[in-house]
Every structure is written in C-alpha cells, then in structure tokens.
Amino acid sequence: MLRALALALALGAAVPAWAGGAPAVVTTSTDLKALVEAVGGDRVAVESLAPALHDPHAVDVKPGQLAKLKTAVLLVRIGLDHEPWLARVLRAVNDPRFRPGGPHDLDVSKGVELLQTEIARVRSERGVHVHGFGNPHYWLDPANARPITQAILEALGRLAPAERPAFTANRERFLARLDAGLARWTAALAPYRGARVVVVHDSWPYFARRFGLEVVAAVEPSPGVPPSPASLAALTARMRESGVRLLIAEPSSSTSLVTQVAARGGARAVTLVPSVGGDPGARDYLALFDVNVRRLAEALAAAR
Ligand SMILES: [Zn+2]
C-alpha cells in the first residue's frame, strides 16, 4: 500500500497508480469492453460508458461513470465519428491524460482497414454520427478483433509491463477461439454467399464483406436519417427488382418501418444484434457472432 502510494506520488497526483488492485479501463462500447476483457482477463476492471443498445447521438453518461473515468488508466474508443457524445464527457472530466493521441487514450480504429472512407459526407448538424470518416461499425467483422486486441495488448503492456506476458497469453487463447469461430461462422453462411440484403442502418458492411453478403441498400438514405415516402417507394421497388430476400434490422429499428419495408419489398426481416449484451445470448464478443450467424442462417434458409 505504501509502495502504491509512493508510486502515485512519484507519478504525480493526477495519475492513478497501476499498483493496488485491478487497474480500471473505460471503453466507449460493450464490444470494446469485451475485447479488453479478452486481453486483460481478471487483471483489469473494465467499464463501458455506453450501454449495449443506445442511440449513438444520445448516450447519457452517469456521474458514477464519470468518476470511473477519473480513476481509469486507459480510455479505449471506436474513434471516427462514432462517439459524438464523448467530447462532452471528456470536457466534464477535464483530465488532460485522455487527450486524443495521448498515452492514456486508445483509438482502436487506427489499426483497422476502414470501409467507405471515400463517401464524402458533410455534418448536417454538430455532433451527429454520420459515418463521415469511413464506416465506424468495424467491430462487426470478427477478423478485426485481431488488430483491435493487438492495439489493446500494446496499450496495456505499456502501462503494466510486468503483466504483459499474462496479457499476451490471454490474447493468444482468445485468438485461437476466434479462429475456430471464424471457421464455424464461415461454414454456416457458406450456402448463402452472394445473398442480397437490405439493412436499416448501415452497420453491416464489414460483417457482409467477411461472410459474402451483398448489401444492396440501406433504408436510411444517410446514416441516422429516416427515409421519405419517395425514397421508401424507390427502395422497395429496387428490392423487388434485384431479388433482395432479407432485410436486416436492429433492436433499435422502428418496428413499423421494418414491417412496412419488408412487406412492400417482398423480403423477410431479421433482427441482428449490433453489440455485445444487446441480446442475452450475446454475452461476449464470440457469442455475439454465434447469435448473429445463427439468426442470419435461419432467416436466409427460410427466405429462399
Ligand atoms: Zn452507424
């Protein structure tokens, strides 16, 4: 305890000591929380600022979570424009350690090959999640867990060098299970390669690329923007013309909109889970894909 205190004093009062219990890591999503846990195991205490299911524009961060961030040694985030609510949180915490690019800030998008970076989108209003710097839903390609956990391993290993071998071993065990999962999910969806789908929100391009689905269109004409009657009519006509059999919704999608698009477009609707914890079965990162692949395979089989 005295040694921990001395270390804290040596590092300066603003920097919490790593010694003395599991260090705190804060993430902006439940998916990143699950991936930090895959690397950190029981050697870290992880908390997500956002719940599994939320409106990306309106995450309500509680005072208790702000307190957690103040004692955390690392903030792990999706980056791009995925967390428009985070700037307000960081202003409230007012801790220079979490300055973007600093040693206690980890933007895991840096190690990922992004999709849709060429789509020019102007921010129509301040603080809206519009996929303006590329599509931010990259955690939905399970293969991206490799670079993401690599970045987490580097950050945790730098902050706690003595724990690095344990973090490395945890990650290796996780990657072995991930590779087994990738083989299982790829085999389950192999019969449906090339299937054409429409999505409500454009959350699935990474997932679709990994498993060979073709995303023909999104119901939202631009991310977060509800469709006009004219754009809905054009979309459902296109769905019928191009033989789209499946509409991918999320738990937050409007039920009446999903029912209407599916009926008018001649497609079957399936609800996939966008984040760990968004469904009781999706309790960790690998289970998220077990749930989604099972739902998708069943829906595609029924939609044939
Ligand atoms: Zn989005």
Describe this structure in words.
The protein is globular, with a radius of gyration of 21 Å. 42% of the residues lie in helices and 11% in strands. The strands form 2 sheets. A 4-stranded parallel beta sheet has the order 2-1-3-4, sandwiched between helices. The chain has 304 residues and is an alpha/beta fold. The protein binds zinc ion. The site of zinc ion has 6 residues, from loops. Zinc ion binds at residues 129, 131, 137, 201, 203, 223.
Counted up, domains total 2
CA(first)-CA(last) distance:
64 Å
Anisotropy-based shape:
globular
Helicity range of the residues?
40-55%
Fraction of residues in β-strands: 5-15%
H-E string: HEHEHEHEHHEHEHEHEH
At the fourth level of CATH, the homologous superfamily of the largest domain is Nitrogenase molybdenum iron protein domain
Per CATH, the architecture of the largest domain is 3-Layer(aba) Sandwich
Instruction: Identify every distinct bound molecule in the structure, by name, code or SMILES.
Output: zinc ion
Class by helix and strand content? alpha/beta
CATH class of the largest domain: Alpha Beta
Mean pLDDT: 90
Total number of β-strand segments?
8
Biggest β-sheet: strands ordered side by side in the sheet:
2-1-3-4
Alpha-carbon Rg, integer: 21 Å
**Uncertain ranges:** 1-17
The CATH topology label of the largest domain is Rossmann fold
Helical run tally:
10
Sheet with the most strands?
Answer: 4 strands, parallel
